[in-house]
Give the backbone structure.
Amino acid sequence: MDKGLSIAIILDGNRRYAKKQGLKPWQGHKFGVDKVKDFLKWCQELGVKELTLYTFSIDNFNRTEQEKKALFLLFEENIKKLKEDERLDKNSIRVRFIGRLQLFPDNIQKEMNEVMEKTKNNDNFKLNFAMAYGGKAEIVDATKKIIQKIKNKEISEEDIDEKLINENLYLTSSPDILIRPGGEKRISDFLIWQSNYAELFFLDKLWPEFTKEDLTAIIEEFKQRERRFGK
């Protein structure tokens, strides 16, 4: 297996899956959470070293109050469970939450910060949750950080290049593979800087229907693709 393989995935289709099961749309997110746990396990078994999950976009704040309330409860509950999960230290998993985290209620921010602090020295596997995330927002925030550094005379305008911009993003690594289940063929403002050379995979299956066989097939196809990087 390729050492250091990095995967990013858009978790799409939870609500449609719930409808298929005759449930309320927001109830599908529980199935999505269970699938994330499976997916993390599969990634570790298949030699993946970094996983970035598009969990909640900035645009998702426009959903109904009822759905947001259910989602925030689910986030708090599962981040607490994650914090106590012994596998984080056992498998040396570093957890990060990336995005405009300040948009979440204080209790969720607190749980996120505690998990990140607890796992900051782990270095075998990187697990990133993109929350209150938007690719354009990420570039805007990176630009503001750079402007502040220029104001503080830490750097000059001449120092601005792609490397500097990359260093000021929420996520400085780039995925090899970007997956979107759910039938849509777009990346929806996800890692728009980092995914410039990612191999894209779109599946009609909804996220809760995703299987280990699907992931294995994607990795096998990835290994067959010729990645020229403009050469």
Observations:
- The longest strand covers residues 48-57.
- The chain has a mean pLDDT of 95.
